[in-house]
Ubiquitin-like domain-containing protein
Amino acid sequence: MGDIYYQVLLLGLAGQQYAIDVDTSLENFRKTTISKFKELVIKRIQKEATAKHIGTADIRLVFGSKQLEEKETFDYYSIIPKSTILMVLRLPGGWC
């Protein structure tokens, strides 16, 4: 029998929904950094042919109305198992 994972739901770039396995321990789930979660996201979405070129620097994650900073943890943002996080692409460019 396999391990039971605490998961976060991710809304993808074209409306796809993914269940991302984060950790088997609630304590470790809470300590998960956004940077580590981005790595899990990329690993999961790169299974699709259209997402093979996307890296962690290319995405932004949003929970509620807050953009998630890589150095912070799930606990910092009060992210609990089964929370929904939105993924958006970082667009190149700048001010004119």
